[in-house]
Write a structure and sequence with these properties.
This protein has 204 residues and is of the alpha+beta class. The protein has four helices and eleven strands. The protein folds into two domains: 97 residues, Immunoglobulin-like, CATH 2.60.40; 88 residues, Glutaredoxin (3-Layer(aba) Sandwich), CATH 3.40.30. InterPro entries: Thioredoxin-like_sf (IPR036249). Keywords: Signal.
């Protein structure tokens, strides 16, 4: 069994990654064509870990959130990918770690925040720490007096997990989770390249 260490949190795996601190170690265990991403809790506290993988060249699309509690000083599998034959495979991921003991899983729960009420007929922006595009969008929305709500996933990863479960039907094998993640009244937008064009879309 080959074990390959990928990175520690607070090291950036993509330009859109969410980094947390040296609390969780993500490693890769490869068995033939199967790649298992493992999360190791390096602390003496139970941690709530949110993992979002963007995979290309694998049989299983991993564009879904995985949220698990990890016991102190333990390692658990987070997600398994299966490589396609004759296709170059690669993946990136976003990782959020919370010290609070949330109820894990992406199933929508009424006792948590009411995600349908939060989203209904609104523009909702999910941002991440160290995301310059997130800040630019929020500043522009305010400057143009476009009504919106925003949530930082570092502070509310559970709500973001609920949101991703809510929009699961909109995710495809080609979906790439880029920040900011924008809910535009009845549709989702992952990131942007042209801010002015995005503002026109959101203002209609």
């Amino acid at each position: 069994m080959k074990v390959k260490i990928l990175l520690l949190l607070f090291l950036t795996c993509t330009s859109n990654s969410v980094c947390q601190g040296l609390k969780v170690l993500i490693s890769e265990e490869k068995k033939g064509k199967r790649v298992v991403l493992m999360a190791e809790n390096k602390t003496k506290d139970t941690l709530n870990v949110f993992l979002m993988v963007n995979a290309e060249g694998y049989r299983r699309s991993a564009s879904k959130p995985v949220i698990k509690n990890i016991a102190p000083l333990s390692t658990i599998p987070m997600i398994t990918l299966v490589e396609l034959e004759g296709v170059e495979s690669r993946y990136t991921y976003d990782l959020v770690v919370n010290e609070k003991d949330y109820s894990v899983g992406v199933t929508y729960k009424k006792e948590q925040k009411d995600i349908e009420r939060i989203l209904k007929d609104k523009i909702v922006v999910f941002t991440a720490d160290e995301c310059e595009k997130c800040k630019a969008l929020l500043d522009s929305l305010s400057a143009n007096r476009i009504q919106h709500r925003s949530f930082n996933i570092n502070e509310d990863a559970t709500l973001y997990g609920q949101f991703m479960a809510f929009i699961e039907r909109k995710l495809t094998a080609e979906s790439r989770i880029l920040f900011p993640v924008i809910w535009n009244k009845d549709d989702v937008i992952f990131g942007y390249d042209d801010l002015e064009r995005l503002l026109i879309i959101l203002d209609n």
